[in-house]
Amino acid sequence: MKTVVMKCGGSVLDELDDPFFISLKELMNDGYFPVIVHGGGPAINSMLEFYNMTQNFKNGLRVTCEKTMEIVEMVLSGQTNRQLCGILTKQGFNVLGMNGSDSLCLQADYIDKHELGFVGKVTNVNTDLIMMVVESGYIPVITPIGIAEDGSKLNINGDYAAASIAKALHAERCAFVTNVDGIMIDGKLVSELTALEIENYLSDGSIYGGMVPKVNSALAATAAGVEKAMIISGKKPFYKNNCWHGTVVAAKEGMLK
Ligand SMILES: Nc1ncnc2c1ncn2[C@@H]1O[C@H](COP(=O)(O)OP(=O)(O)O)[C@@H](O)[C@H]1O
Ligand SMILES: CC(=O)N[C@@H](CCC(=O)OP(=O)(O)O)C(=O)O
């Protein structure tokens, strides 16, 4: 079964457009089974602002106290997951919204409780559960919230969650759907980047902000055996006539195909 993990970033949820859905349909007609993970950073920011709560990020990760975790869950499970499932349903896709914290879907551990609070990294994925949904003909739409051993819900960066799921499913591809066409260097879209090139572009600041967890996740996924990891646009066709459009990230020099 050819699975493709697609992470839909919060930046693009309001802007997913017809070309994206047409590509998704074509992909499925070509025998790929999508598993979707979503973000929701901008919606969480707005809700925290609404409640006059302070926001703080360290290394691109939201510092998440207990109260913030409640808001994160409310927004990701109650708002952005619903929004994306609604859009996809309207477009004719059979979807099933899943909370990462239900039925040990995403088991997680604290990254650094002292520094970041309730922020986690995935330690185990309930692949049986996800594949049961896929094999029943539905697209899982997974909220990036994990469950810790102590029963706490943990906030997981959507890009990292997607890479972990792709690794666990031995997915053929992990695609990060965002609000740009791919990785831009000096204003131009780059179609392929090696790990070494990425390292250089990270250190000279050409890759920054929200693109950093994406390239790190893409590298982690390919290093763990996912054949291809890509940054793609949610506003343009990303797949047509068996060709993918965006930036392919390769784990090692010479691995680009
Ligand atoms: N080299 C780069 N090429 C393209 N986008 C980049 C680059 N470096 C940083 N970015 C930024 O990364 C953003 C995507 O990350 P983010 O806003 O976190 O998206 P998402 O919500 O989809 O995860 C782009 O809108 C852009 O501002
Ligand atoms: C720990 C951490 O930072 N979690 C993210 C989860 C949402 C996310 O990843 O959303 P985007 O894909 O839109 O960035 C957050 O709280 O914003």
Small-molecule components bound: adenosine-5'-diphosphate, N-acetyl-L-glutamyl 5-phosphate
Beta-strand portion reads: 25-35%
Rg (CA only) = 17 Å
CATH-derived architecture: 3-Layer(aba) Sandwich
The coarse silhouette is globular
Please report the number of helical segments.
8
The name CATH uses for the topology is Carbamate kinase
- CATH H-level superfamily: Acetylglutamate kinase-like
Total strand count, please? 18
- Count of domain modules: 1
Largest sheet: 8 strands, mixed
Report how far apart the termini are: 21 Å
Helix share bin: 25-40%
Whole-number mean pLDDT:
95
CATH class annotation: Alpha Beta
Strand order of the largest sheet: 5-8-2-1-11-15-18-14
Summarize the structure.
The protein is α/β, with parallel strands linked by helices and 257 residues long. 37% of the residues lie in helices and 28% in strands.
